[in-house]
Write a structure and sequence with these properties.
289 residues; alpha/beta; Rossmann fold; globular
């Protein structure tokens, strides 16, 4: 099934979702739930073909420049590569909550793909996290450009400040020469597809979050030069026909709202609910446009 065929199929489901969620009951039941998800499953990088009867989102594995603290970092007793930030628990919780909040059945087992993998077109949405030290080659840029022009969509999350944004912008400039990004204001339909969102949410990593007070992350945690970290934004690359090709949720860590929802009810109520509302809107908008 081609990307465009998959998107036509899921757009029918998305239309029903918007009607259902508009009643408020389904969303309210999920957001009021206190039965937080359990610990993450042990998930290996899956090379199995996707289940095309379910909605599939692939985590993109990429390379990063630098050493410890740049391409890699130490956290919670292990070394993480930048590409695997929030993986796999973010995707597991995302699939669970999307199933509760919509009529969409998301594949429960997260998968990892490279931009150059031949089955990339089986995934209508790609997700990339923490690309502040991203390194890519010509083949990866060409593959991404082909995927996006053929109907695919990329969501990039958890990068803060000027230098980390430029890391991703270079990839997009190589993949789609001439396509420029713009900030989508809260009057854009993506903020009102299912839930009405009147402010772009800023979600800090759990280690920087507070029950009250500021939501931006400290400059020392991010690549220099940081610039301002205070204003979260949704930045979009849009083709000549007005279709969203890729978005970057900048100065915010939306996936941490998914991954860390069970780390305290206050975090769930203050941050995770906002993360899931935006996720539902993005998914429904992208699959129906």
């Amino acid at each position: 099934m081609s990307l465009r065929s998959q998107k036509r199929l899921w757009s029918l489901i998305a239309a029903g979702t918007a009607l259902l969620a508009a009643s408020g009951s389904l969303a309210q039941n999920a957001f009021d739930s206190a039965d937080f998800l359990g610990p993450p499953l042990t998930v290996k990088e899956s090379a199995l073909p996707p289940d095309l009867s379910a909605y599939n989102m692939a985590r993109i594995r990429y390379d990063s420049v630098g050493g410890m603290g740049e391409a890699f970092y130490y956290f919670e007793g292990r070394v993480w590569a930048r590409w695997e930030t929030d993986f796999p628990q973010a995707e597991q919780n995302f699939a669970q909550r999307i199933g509760e909040l919509t009529r969409i059945h998301a594949a429960p087992t997260p998968v990892v793909r490279r931009l150059t993998d031949p089955d990339l077109g089986d995934y209508p949405m790609l997700f990339m996290s923490d690309p502040g030290y991203l390194r890519f080659n010509e083949s990866e840029a060409e593959a991404l450009g082909s995927y996006l022009r053929n109907g695919g969509f990329l969501w990039v999350d958890d990068f803060w400040g000027d230098a980390e944004w430029l890391s991703f912008e270079r990839l997009m400039n190589a993949a789609l020469p001439g396509v420029r990004w713009q900030v989508l204001g809260v009057d854009h339909p993506i903020f009102h597809t299912v839930f009405d969102i009147d402010e772009m949410p800023q979600i800090p990593a759990r280690s920087f979050a507070e029950p009250w007070g500021r939501t931006d992350e400290p400059p020392f945690a991010h690549r220099y030069p940081q610039g301002s970290l205070k204003q979260a934004s949704l930045r979009a690359f849009i083709d000549d026909e007005g279709r969203l090709l890729a978005i970057g949720t900048h100065n915010t860590d939306i996936a941490d709202g998914w991954e860390r929802e069970a780390y305290g009810q206050w975090y769930f109520e203050r941050f995770s609910t906002l993360s899931y509302r935006l996720a539902v809107n993005v998914m429904i908008y992208v699959m129906s446009h």
